[in-house]
Amino acid sequence: MPETPLKPLEELFRVKIIHLLVEEKLLPAERVQVLYSWKHSGFNLHAGEQVPPEAKADLEALAQYILRNPFSVEKMTLESPTDIVIYRSRLNAKINRNFEVFSPTDFLAAITQHIPDKGAQMVRYYGWYSNKMRGVRQRGLRPELVARRPGLSPPPPLKLPSKRWRDLILRVWHVDPLRCPVCQSPMRVIAVVDDPRVVEKILRHLGAWHDPPPRPPPQGLPGAYTYEPCDDVDPDYENVLTD
């Protein structure tokens, strides 16, 4: 085939697969629009050279993009006599270091998080198939320009939540949290407010704050008894007490 953009082919492949699943009654029709609303469709096409079955080395190199161990033994170091585990990797821009220190129990806990449940399968994507590189290709950037150059300061940490929270809410509840429920116009996140006093002030200004109702007194509990002398006692009552 002549050189052509892969995005239209990816969308065509996606539509045909979803249509096939609906025809085979493996996918409800009402779920189709939900799948089409996902930012990441889950489909990916790669225009590379065909790998014949007899090219074992090439097949192994290709399979390493699909299945890969979460930890590398070469990057682990055990410090004696404290048994502290040091795991070294490439520089992480968020924490601005290329290592992580674990106690023995914390390191075992980190490893066991990558063990799937019985009957479950986990697939990790690296290199060309990773979410990062897919985003780079969609934005039209050159992958070699994405890596941070040596000597430059790391980017500041994000103060706003990741954009993925919107996709998760849309996927689970089928409601877009960044779309105005009144006029259906798109909204954007301006700031994250977590101070309860500021939240209450904003809601009171908008008339959306409701004071909690006062707590009623407990019912059915006996109160304190007060005994006072009384002269006008019923004679029949005295007789009952005497009997």
Keywords for this entry:
single chain, 243 residues, disordered C terminus, 31% helix, 8% strand, alpha+beta, 3 strands
Summary?
By secondary structure, the chain is α+β, with helices and mostly antiparallel strands. Helices cover 31% and strands 8% of the residues. Among the domains are: 1-47, no CATH class; 73-112, no CATH class; 160-205, no CATH class.
Would you kindly provide a written description of the structure presented here, covering whatever features stand out?
There is one protein chain. The chain is α+β, with helices and mostly antiparallel strands. Among the domains are: 1-47, no CATH class; 73-112, no CATH class; 160-205, no CATH class. Helices cover 31% and strands 8% of the residues. A 3-stranded antiparallel sheet has the order 1-2-3. Strand 2 (84-92) and strand 3 (97-102) form a beta hairpin. The longest helix is centred in the N-terminal third of the chain and has 18 residues, at 6-23.
